[in-house]
């Protein structure tokens, strides 16, 4: 008997190409995960259109509708909980998840970041890597803790920086690699291949 697919909720703020890659993968019965809901902090996020086009339920929880960050964080957690997720994937979600959100989904939230952490955390990982002059950067999929891109690393892939790269060209090449990595990690985590020992994470 095929075990039921893990229920995945994806958080997006941007175009949603990582989400689109997950949606392309989840159709395969042996992938082991199914995207059941997509949430955003921004009603204009392209990722919401990607979800709607795939027939996946969406919701928007806007920070400006709440008195403070903690209230928004609780409301986001409530909206995610509606989908009873096994796994929450932050894929280009440009907000920090707070303590109440993380305690609700402890150990089940993963994020993708367009740099080789712990180098260049934060909102401008590609720009910062380029400005620093590194010759190799890449992407990281990690478990989310309360810090900014500080959680235990699940997987990373390297991308070379070319002499004529600007932020856009480098980010596009990173995103190609990042999408494949995220799909691989989400599938393996969903299929139960994740072992966490402090900061050391093993996949399969
Ligand atoms: C990704 O590179 C993600 O790591 C970063 O923003 C990008 C989102 O791309 N934080 P998309 O919205 O999935 O196309």
Question: What is the strand and helix layout of this fold?
Answer:
Blueprint: E1 6-12, H1 17-26, E2 33-40, H2 46-53, E3 57-60, H3 69-81, E4 87-90, H4 99-104, E5 109-113, H5 125-132, E6 136-143, E7 153-160, H6 167-190, E8 194-197, E9 200-203
Parallel strand pairs: 1-2, 1-4, 2-3, 4-5
Antiparallel strand pairs: 5-6, 6-7, 8-9
Bound molecules: 5-O-phosphono-beta-D-ribofuranosylamine (GRF).
The site of 5-O-phosphono-beta-D-ribofuranosylamine (GRF) has 15 residues, from α1, β5 and α6.
Task: Report on this structure.
With 204 residues, the chain is of the alpha/beta class. It has six helices and nine strands; from the N terminus they run βαβαβαβαβαββαββ. Helix 1 (17-26) runs parallel beside helix 6. The longest helix has 24 residues, at 167-190. The two termini are 21 Å apart. The mean pLDDT is 96. 5-O-phosphono-beta-D-ribofuranosylamine binds at residues 12, 14-19, 47, 91-92, 112-114, 175, 178. 5-O-phosphono-beta-D-ribofuranosylamine is lined by residues 12, 14-19, 47, 91-92, 112-114, 175, 178.
